[in-house]
Amino acid sequence: MKHRYLGNSGLKVSELIYGNWLTHASQVAEQQAIDTVNAALEGGITTFDTADAYANQAAEVVLGKALKGQRREGIEILTKVYWPVAAKGPNDCGLSRKHIFESINGSLQRLQTDYVDLYQAHRFDYETPLEETMQAFADLVRMGKVLYVGVSEWNAQQIREGQKLASQLGFKLISNQPQYSMLWRVIEAEVIPTSVELGLGQIVWSPMAQGVLTGKYLPGQPAPAGSRAADPSMASIVEKFMGDATLSAVQKLRPLAEGLDLTMAQFALAWVLQNKAVSAAIVGASRPEQMKDNLGASGVEIPADVMAEVDKVLAGVYMTDPSLTKSPAERPC
Questions:
Q1: CB atoms within 10 A of CB 177
Q2: Domain-by-domain residue ranges, the chain?
Q3: What is the SS3 assignment for 161?
Q4: CB of 15 within 8 A of CB of 2?
Q5: Helix, strand or coil for residue 55?
Q6: Is the model's pTM score more than 0.70?
């Protein structure tokens, strides 16, 4: 497993990060979740990403149990704050000082740790003054509860304004966590150049486009039983990639992956890691065997001609509009 610096900081993270958004405490039984975390650890992954909102706080509990007994200095634990949690009352979401402090204290208890390595603003909060948010993060850093601070799905202007305030308060934003894949490239035009300028690394989520880039969805055919697209509660997060033109183009990637002796999943992960602005890609495996397959993407170098062929194959179906990087206009609670 390769490790990379997170932005311009001195913190190294594994270039594949285990994330438990849609799995722990929801889709996957607890022991299976723990077994998958162990497979990640055995494969050299040291970095684990979660959020208080995942399974309404329960995913952090499972991850805390799974990592119990590990040498704390040898792993990196990442969590987030913003989306509604707990009773989802008027102060149970957003980036107010009240919610940030209450959230970090709850996350530390659930994760069974005294600090988190990276605390991330899960979206931008238009209803809380940015000065209040950044002051709260600065205070948590000084208290030692948070070592580093990052953001998720902030646009370029928000990142610039946040970094300016962070610098004035004596700390730095070191990361952004955006959606990024062969099919979703909306950060390339504005967010990545701004992040590179200001010293933020990208921790990308959904590098397999919610499983579409594994090639399991075929044009003109129903989604496989048990897949996200077949689940009414999750189909909406996949539907933007489910057009026949997109699914047909994805099938044309298969010979490119096979030519490099990679599975489609490994190829998708290796593709995002070719971008030097990307520090790591999040994988959300639900079974140990899935995790072991994903590990094969670490350290892969895709030749320039193959990268160019990917662009040619997917021309017209991947998304690039920078305005698609956005947060809710109103606080969601």
A1: 27
A2: 3-324
A3: helix
A4: yes
A5: coil
A6: yes
Strand segments, DSSP code E, in the chain are 3-5, 12-14, 16-19, 47-49, 76-81, 116-121, 146-151, 173-176, 201-204, 278-283
DSSP characters over 165-218? HHHHTT--EEEE--B-SSSB-TTTTTHHHHHHHHTPEEEEB-TTTTTGGGT---
Q: How many residues make up the chain in this entry?
A: 333
Gyration radius of the chain over CA positions: 19
pLDDT in tens, the chain (333 residues): 999 999 999 999 999 999 988 676 566 778 888 999 999 999 999 999 999 999 999 999 999 999 999 999 999 999 999 999 999 999 999 999 999 999 999 999 999 999 999 999 999 999 999 999 999 999 999 999 999 999 999 999 999 999 999 999 999 999 999 999 999 999 999 999 999 999 999 999 999 999 999 999 998 888 887 777 777 777 778 889 999 999 999 999 999 999 999 999 999 999 999 999 999 999 988 889 989 999 999 999 999 999 999 999 999 999 999 999 999 999 999
Please give the angle made by the CA atoms of 11, 133 and 276, to the nearest 5 degrees.
35
Strand partners, 202: 176, 278
Annotation says 54 is catalytic: yes
Residue with tokens 């044009």: 219
Whether 13 contacts 46, CB under 8 Å: yes
Q: Please state, in angstroms and rounded to a whole number, the distance separating the CA atoms of residues 201 and 5.
A: 8
Q: Topology of domain 3-324, per CATH? A: TIM Barrel (3.20.20)
Q: Which of 18, 54, 82, 180 is catalytic?
A: 54
